[in-house]
Amino acid sequence: MQPFDYYRPKDFGEAFKLLTLSDKVVYPLAGATDLIPHTRESVWKPDIVVDIKGLPGLRDIKVEGLEPCCGCAPGECLYVGAAMRMNEIAYSELVKLHWDILAQGAASMGNEQVRNRATLGGNLCTASPVADSAPALFVLEASVLIKGPNGDRSLPIGQFFTGPKENALKRGEIVVGVLIPKPPAGTVGVYEKLSRRKAGDLAVASVAVLALPGGKWRVALGAVAPTPIRAPQAEAVLNTGVDDTHIDEAAAAAYGCCCPIDDVRASAGYRQAMVVNITRRAIRKALEKLEIVDDIR
Ligand SMILES: Cc1cc2nc3c(=O)[nH]c(=O)nc-3n(C[C@H](O)[C@H](O)[C@H](O)COP(=O)(O)OP(=O)(O)OC[C@H]3O[C@@H](n4cnc5c(N)ncnc54)[C@H](O)[C@@H]3O)c2cc1C
């Protein structure tokens, strides 16, 4: 593996100085579960890695109304720092309170060892179409909070992914966290992931389904397009009804939203066909959960 220098800045000023060194290839480093394998395989060739886990706010997870925000009242948004690890998110009682579908996505990632290191920010910044945190963040309509040498900005999650393994970050910028609006009371979510093995493998296809009160639905898909995507046609069908015919039509509409590729894990045709199955299954599970919520009330 090519040797590189390691720095762990304590403030953003020092971090941005390193991240913008003009004559060096510099990578932010979080859990290193993508960075080290890619460097070992010479896919990435850093001269310097900048460990961002010690920067202020990146290890916070809290509920608050922040600016720029989504219009939520204070206390209505979940902030998850970019350096929060997948298992910390999967087991967080705070996350499970209203944003459980994100906990489901985090829990489905890799294996126990990977989840103990891998961070949410790293999962987003690698920008793989299979990123297990992404479909949940799409249906929760999260914003990605970005800090850089030229200031702060935020992007809707759908604008952060710009292509396979490509994101909207500019030179020197890092993701500091995500901001997630609180869904209305009674919302339920289901994340379904299909992979070749039950644990430790990347998704062949994945779907996140969010059922909101009043019969409104949100659907997002992973691993079946150059980036994670929303499936508005499937949502439109479910918004008009959820009997068996509607469920089949919504699953077929999800199929229509896909444009997957063949790779070592599955053919494009198999991925697309499986989207029908997992979408149907996720909708049915969400309906079961809705019944339980209604029974409790
Ligand atoms: C065995 C194994 C199994 C895996 N299984 C899955 C799986 O099932 N699902 C899945 O989605 N992924 C999986 N992965 C991929 C990987 O674990 C995740 O993408 C992980 O979330 C990456 O996070 P990290 O903190 O390790 O990122 P790192 O490796 O530290 O960084 C990844 C990339 O993002 C950049 N980066 C990191 N944080 C930031 C930030 N805050 N701002 C700007 N840039 C940043 C780095 O410079 C680098 O380019 C697996 C990996 C392994 C090794």
Structural commentary:
With 297 residues, this protein is of the alpha+beta class. Strand 2, helix 2 (35-40) and strand 3 form a beta-alpha-beta unit. It is built from twelve helices and 14 strands. It has a five-stranded antiparallel beta sheet. A four-stranded antiparallel beta sheet has the order 11-12-13-14, sandwiched between helices. Strands 1-3-2 form a three-stranded parallel beta sheet, covered by helices on one side. It folds into three domains: 5-51, Uridine Diphospho-n-acetylenolpyruvylglucosamine Reductase, domain 2; 61-181, Uridine Diphospho-n-acetylenolpyruvylglucosamine Reductase, domain 3; 188-296, 2-Layer Sandwich (Enolase-like, domain 1). Helix 10 packs antiparallel against helix 11 (244-257) and helix 11 (244-257) packs across helix 12. It binds flavin-adenine dinucleotide. Flavin-adenine dinucleotide (FAD) binds at residues 27-35, 37, 52, 82, 109-110, 114, 117-119, 121-123, 125-126, 130-132, 169, 174-175, 200, 202.
Core attributes:
single chain, four-stranded antiparallel sheet, Enolase-like, domain 1, Uridine Diphospho-n-acetylenolpyruvylglucosamine Reductase, domain 3, 297 residues, binds flavin-adenine dinucleotide, Uridine Diphospho-n-acetylenolpyruvylglucosamine Reductase, domain 2
